[in-house]
Amino acid sequence: MKAVILAAGEGMRLRPLTASEPKVMIPVANRPIIEYVVDALVKNDISDIVMVVGYRKERIMSHFQDGRKFGAKIEYVVQEKQLGNGHALNCARDRVSGDFLVLAGDNIVDSKAVGDLIASGTSPCALVVESENPSKYGVVTIEKGSIRGVVEKPQNLVSNIILTGLYCLQNSIFDVIERSIADGEYGLSYAVSSALGDHPVIPVFSDGMWIDAVYPWDLLELNAAALEDANVRTAGKIEKHVTTMGPVGIGEETIIRAGTTIYGPVLIGEGCDIGPNVTIFPSTSIGDNVTIDPYTMIKNSILMSNTSIAAHSYLSHCVLGYGVKGRSHLMAAGAEAYMNVADEFFKVPHIGSIVGEDTELGTGVIVEPGTIVGAGCKISSGAKITRNLPNRSLVT
Fold first, then answer.
1. How many of the other CB atoms lie within 10 Å of CB of 394?
2. Is the pTM of this model over 0.85?
3. Residue 221 domain flag
4. DSSP alpha helix (H) spans, the chain
């Protein structure tokens, strides 16, 4: 059986983190999101994979290449214009036959969830889960063991059971997709809904892991979940008087300096220089070649590779893109906040700041909770950032 991974989209609601790479390549627990999908398939002996790529496709293709390093055989199909996941799947029409799996490349999914879908032994079928926020998804109604209807992003409560984007489908779905596209509907859930009359779709429940990344704060949930299951190993150099508690992974050529305390689960990449006297709290992942100077405290955050945080700084519930440079006394605390994402406002229970790649923050900068700072910004010392900043902003 082949699997098709849909990985063509940008992830507009995750801007500016997708400024130079697609959503599926954003790292959680120091691995691209899509790598968890590939791993879940390979653990279920599904190694023949078609990836549908589009936005910044070179980043995906250079990472996976032919898939051999990941125990898979990967081929690529390009969706030239990102029109929707139904249209994306249709681009792979000539690469699959019979029954095949479809997965979204921007979800973290484990081998059990994929295994339960395969083990159902029926096609077509769809992995479904109960959701606290069903209005963000395709919501299903179920009668007599089959999906009877799909309502896309309903305003009123229809059900709390949603489609996850994981399916086992048959070749006949492509004719339905073609008709849906002709009607101006490019989503896969619309095609699945249209096919229900002729091809009943069986819902498959699983207690395996499935977490979606739609908004920036979702990345922190993904990161925490991935760290719980991460295989950690300790390398590099750990000086005397360093305290670690719980699972802490430390990469090659990383130095953890004296007086540093790390409460796992925490993952630190290769070539980092941490401390002395730094405190890192759980659910934090730190990429490669990251520098964190003395008396800095970091909680429940993602720091991508090549970032540097100077002394006496505090970060909580933050996501920092590649190459962010923060000078001393940077304050980016986490708290309940309203966030403006793609011109919509959301009340988020606990969030810090989202900072795009290559942004530079001067000494004593304060970034208010829920603030999104674009890529390539330059923020002068002493500034207080209280609203979102577009890419390449200059704050003096």
1. 10
2. yes
3. no
4. 33-42, 57-64, 85-90, 111-119, 173-182, 188-194, 216-229
Residues with Cβ < 8 Å from 89, sequence gap 6 or more? Answer: 4, 6, 52, 102, 173, 174, 177, 188
What is the rounded distance in angstroms from the CA atom of residue 4 to the CA atom of residue 62? 18
In a domain, 82, yes or no: yes
CATH number of the domain within which 284 lies:
2.160.10.10
Domain limits at 136? 2-214
User: Which element (helix H / strand E) includes 379?
Assistant: strand 378-379
Cβ contact 211:221 at 8 Å: yes
Q: What is the DSSP letter of 183?
A: T
Q: What confidence score (pLDDT) does residue 341 get?
A: 93
Model pLDDT for residues 315-350, shown as the tens digit of each residue: 999 999 999 999 999 999 999 999 999 888 999 999
pLDDT of residue 389: 97
State the pLDDT at residue 62. 96
Domain boundary among 214, 240, 266: 214
